[in-house]
Amino acid sequence: MTSSTEGSVRILPLGGLGEIGMNLMVYECQGKLLVFDTGLTFPSPDTPGVDVIIPDIRWLEERKQDVVGIILTHGHEDHIGALPYVWPRLESPIFGTAFTLGLVKMKFKEHDLSTATIREVRHREAFQVGPFNLIFIHVTHSIVDASAVAIRTPIGTLLHSGDFKFDHTPVNGLTSDLFSLAKLGEEGVLALLSDSTNVDRSGSSRSESSVRPALDEQMARAQGLVVCATFSSNIHRIQQIVDSAIAHGRKVVLNGRSMEANVGVARELGFIRLDGDDLVTVKSIKNHERHRLCIISTGSQGEPNSSLMRIAHQEHRDIILGAGDMVILSSKFIPGNERAIWSLINLLYERGVEVVHEKDNPHIHVSGHAPADDLKTMLALTKPRFFIPMHGEPRHLHLHRKLALAMGVAEERSLVMENGDLVELTPNHISIIDRVEHGRVFVDGKGVGDICDIVMRDRRHLSEDGMVVVVMVVAKDGGQLLEGPEILTRGVIHEDENPQMLEEMRETVAQALAIGAKGMDFNEDEQVGASDIAVRALRRFFKKRLGRRPVVLPMVMEM
Amino acid sequence: MTSSTEGSVRILPLGGLGEIGMNLMVYECQGKLLVFDTGLTFPSPDTPGVDVIIPDIRWLEERKQDVVGIILTHGHEDHIGALPYVWPRLESPIFGTAFTLGLVKMKFKEHDLSTATIREVRHREAFQVGPFNLIFIHVTHSIVDASAVAIRTPIGTLLHSGDFKFDHTPVNGLTSDLFSLAKLGEEGVLALLSDSTNVDRSGSSRSESSVRPALDEQMARAQGLVVCATFSSNIHRIQQIVDSAIAHGRKVVLNGRSMEANVGVARELGFIRLDGDDLVTVKSIKNHERHRLCIISTGSQGEPNSSLMRIAHQEHRDIILGAGDMVILSSKFIPGNERAIWSLINLLYERGVEVVHEKDNPHIHVSGHAPADDLKTMLALTKPRFFIPMHGEPRHLHLHRKLALAMGVAEERSLVMENGDLVELTPNHISIIDRVEHGRVFVDGKGVGDICDIVMRDRRHLSEDGMVVVVMVVAKDGGQLLEGPEILTRGVIHEDENPQMLEEMRETVAQALAIGAKGMDFNEDEQVGASDIAVRALRRFFKKRLGRRPVVLPMVMEM
């Protein structure tokens, strides 16, 4: 596949299409590549034991010399989390707004990376990166300093929406820059790529500031200690919790590593108003009356190692909750985390703690993503000729495309992309011209990419049926059994309570070896060794005796 | 612990308290035991590879001779699913209404069990079981022929609500028997034990019949084939789908083993109106026009092996869906299944199929459980002196108790039970007097109870970090290494792509064995063998090299 020609732009998602999270989009113009966001995603039950998952960027690495920059639309983990892994392999300059870069610098420090190539961008100020002329446009989202980005190319303007919603009464007064979006629309937008996350919600956005009365209502009736859990990057939410707490005579405690770190960055850069006099450290909680404190904490997703979960388990040294206390989860039930969050809530109820959460009280949290009417407004403002839905699972993408068609985008000028689809866009035509190498890379401990889908499949198999190892020592010449078979199991049966079962397994293998391969349905021309016989005998034993299929591994030592 | 005295009744939940599912409650009067429901629960990511989970009934078994009967309130799996495992160990007579027993008989046939002790009960007809005088009272629920049960004892009447809601316009016209409940209230109810599942929902029940217009709306606009997935035990829902399909000129196809079986039982017993002429078999779908058929299917939970999932994967021989077709999920997103259901929906969207589900269209499904206002109505009708919330997680139980207190139940006359709590109730007092042996029993293949929580912990550990086996042959006398170490891994690294890693592991163990236990932080008085050294060396290797903690298993053969 050759590079893009003069009259076209290419678009290639390496993550974030057909899934939520792990966003990474590549734009190509005149042979130069511009990367938008480098996000991570968190593991699911399908990927046990993994720390985080990042996009496979081997395609980008092969064209490292063509990459002119990495654009960060905002500071959420699903947009910047993979940067410490991606950047060392591309070493391109990084562009973003102040708060986003504040978080990136913190991340780079943790990973011992240089921050020499980080360039701060201001909204509305155009700048050139290779053949791309870029303008960051402020949009409201559940993190401060977020942006849509206009990409001016020789064939026209593309608009990459980033994550956004249209909040007309944001906490800091900075609304989405509707004028800049409308101006682009008036000048002509060739293609809009827009956030699909909440396309299945009707209506327009609820404002972030609508959470304040809901917080006040709880603070007003709270009797004891209040713990308010939210996402540590949601600075406006934290601002409102701080303001509500102080208005109700409570000082503020920051709890959780990322809560302290992110609020630290926000204070330094002026994104939050929080007086040092209103802050109490976790260690000195005991010196204050309970009804005079509000703890702002991480752990809203029921993460097993979070500080809030330790509190719920009564394992926290400084924070003990009981009857009369209140926990407010000012946060989303992120899909996949429901079970963990309900466990957290149940534990707190068992301690007599009252829990306020969005399932019972929908006003206690608002989403940062545009619902259908906001998406229509974005289309109405920008009037794009071509439309590509991004950021979402297949159902979101298909629904968003349908919405754009209903708004007048011509059917042949909109398509649903998948990760790895290389799309060519000209002023009059859009089509998928190739599929490129892409995928997920698992980060587990210090290993990045040494675990692949095959290892994941093995882990799932181990977890479902456990495993049995059969060990034998045979003579180098002739294969006579010298020692064993010995059996080792894990996750199959409780050996201490079923010792006779181990003996049965040994017997089964020993008998099968004595009889040999006959009657075991091996192909006639197969070379059958002791390990084949042992494995087959054990598999049959488990199927017949227990109706199970554990992983059976043979180990034959020759002496 | 002695048996109950003349002046008291004892109540013991062995399942279903503090959790959803696996319901089993025991009532004791004059030393005799009556079992209410014997339900199962389905596995979660915490219990990988398990088929189903049933309550531990060892306590009941020890008092087998005192068990006078098993009462089934209705035919859902979380109330009757454990019966094939529980009944053979108690061999008590089973009491239930016609449809419930129809399902039980089918189950017993599958498990090759005798049905000699099954006794059909009719609503409102009192009968005696040991010291208990019982009356089944009809209640509406998401299955036909469901019941609350009044338990008359020498110290007063207990009311066990079963699963219920107050549907005033049910599909078959049979409302909950409010008169019988009110009459009990008027006569005096000592204690109410009531379903807490939906206590966190406000308002009163939406009627089952309110689903019909929502179905009609979809059937009216559907162009191609319609597949409507729902729970196979929800006979009224199936009736409404059938009626809607026929009204819109579509014949009906029953798809899925349990759909065919349950509808078969319902037709036989007269619980559904479905003319044979309106039925088309799966095999003959191809002989009919697509817009003249409606397939009623199982698989609404995205179960990986369900027929609907095979359809979505385009792996079904007779049912192929594409653009213009519609799938209606007339069912709940059961907590824990969200990920699987969204996968199903995404697959269908990718094929161009339109999907209608309760998250976008809340009218397409209604719950079978009483929300807060129905629970208040139950309390108002029955005016119990004592109140015990049942069927629910801790948060539901605590909220339901709070609701009862707000309705006037005295604080000291209501308590939240956990599984294993033995409660003693007298006319004037209620308290937990003991904790008895209880728990979960895992059914995996043919094994019932041979897998315990320790095996589950091992499976989870295997799935998170994989496992490494190190095998060595040493001399019987002196322990000299004769062969090995050999290394076997699964779920740790991809061996084919990292062969040098295996070599490093072997080297690490060989070196450690050569050096011996010195400098490895063993206690001085510890007896340290080759396997201890090998395990410790490998653990260190993984921690340092990969930041991981696989299960390390040694196998030393002596020769």
TrEMBL record, chains A, B:
Annotated catalytic residues: 195, 369
Keywords: Calcium, Cytoplasm, Endonuclease, Exonuclease, Hydrolase, Metal-binding, Nuclease, RNA-binding, rRNA processing, Zinc
Cofactor note: Binds 1 Ca(2+) cation per subunit. Seen in 1 crystal structure, it is not clear if it is physiologically important. Binds 2 Zn(2+) ions per subunit. It is not clear if Zn(2+) or Mg(2+) is physiologically important.
Residues bound to Ca(2+): 49, 51, 444
Record bears the keyword Endoplasmic reticulum: no
Annotated EC: 3.1.-.-
Compartments (UniProt record): Cytoplasm
GO biological process, one term: rRNA processing
Residues at which Zn(2+) 1 binds: 74, 76, 141, 163, 391
Gene Ontology CC terms: cytoplasm
Any single Pfam family the record assigns to this protein: Lactamase_B
PROSITE patterns: UPF0036
Any one GO molecular function term: RNA endonuclease activity
Residues the record lists as binding substrate: 232-234, 365-369
Binding sites annotated in the UniProt record for Zn(2+) 2: 78-79
PANTHER family membership: RIBONUCLEASE J
Function noted in UniProt: An RNase that has 5'-3' exonuclease and possibly endonuclease activity. Involved in maturation of rRNA and in some organisms also mRNA maturation and/or decay.
Quaternary organization: Homodimer, may be a subunit of the RNA degradosome.
Protein's recorded name: Ribonuclease J
Gene: rnj
